[in-house]
Write a structure and sequence with these properties.
Elements: E1 5-7, E2 14-17, E3 22-25, E4 31-34, E5 37-47, E6 53-54, E7 61-69, E8 74-83, H1 88-96, E9 105-106, E10 123-129, E11 138-144, E12 148-150, H2 152-161, E13 177-178
Parallel strand pairs: 6-13, 8-11, 8-12
Antiparallel strand pairs: 1-4, 2-3, 2-9, 3-5, 4-5, 5-7, 7-8, 10-11
This protein binds zinc ion.
């Protein structure tokens, strides 16, 4: 498996409750290399429950880090979120997320997107589509095989705003049901 070439900075620019999810937007300077194509990190948003399953297992949440190339292609890094040890970055997001839909506000400077990555960056790579509206765009999916852990209290706080904002997992659809080897 090729190494995932992430070059992310350590802060987010703004945080927004957009009526579909909580999203953090990033300023210029964070990127991902896929082959020799550079994708810039635009935003990360969250789904509850996870949209992907691994080995038939569903997760409480999933983060989608959305990147875009100069040519307009999208690449999404998916991170499955299990309940366990608190994740300081996700904890700060939950503490500062706007409770109601509204405009983007400055994000807490302590929110480091790199802290929401597992230690091992193994991943599944497949073409698919975007799961939040609009769903028609073609996307390179990079789903990390290892989940991260977040506090169950933080999942519960997110669930108060968005109890169910994932597209239902489609059985036997290879785009959503993946098996680690
Ligand atoms: Zn998404």
């Amino acid at each position: 498996m090729p190494v995932l070439k992430l070059n992310w900075g350590k802060g987010a620019d703004t945080i927004v409750n957009n009526g579909h999810t909580i999203q953090l937007n990033f300023a210029e300077g964070s990127s991902l290399m896929l082959g020799n194509v550079k994708y810039k990190l635009l935003q990360v948003h969250f789904h509850r429950p996870s949209e992907h399953m691994i080995g038939g297992k569903n997760f409480p949440m999933e983060a989608h880090f959305v990147h875009r190339s100069e040519a307009g292609g999208l690449a999404v890094v998916g991170v499955l979120m299990a309940e366990g040890k608190p994740n300081p970055a996700f904890g700060k997001i939950v503490k500062t997320m706007p409770a109601a839909e509204g405009p983007a506000v400055k994000a807490d400077a302590g929110i480091d997107p790199r802290a929401m990555l597992p230690q091992r960056l193994g991943y599944f790579h497949y073409p698919g589509s975007l799961t939040t509206p609009p769903c028609s765009e073609v996307v390179e999916w990079l789903l990390l095989t290892d989940p991260i852990q977040v506090a169950s209290a933080d999942v519960a706080a997110f669930a108060k705003l968005y109890p169910m904002n994932a597209r239902p997992v489609q059985k036997d659809n290879r785009r959503y049901v993946l098996r680690s080897t």
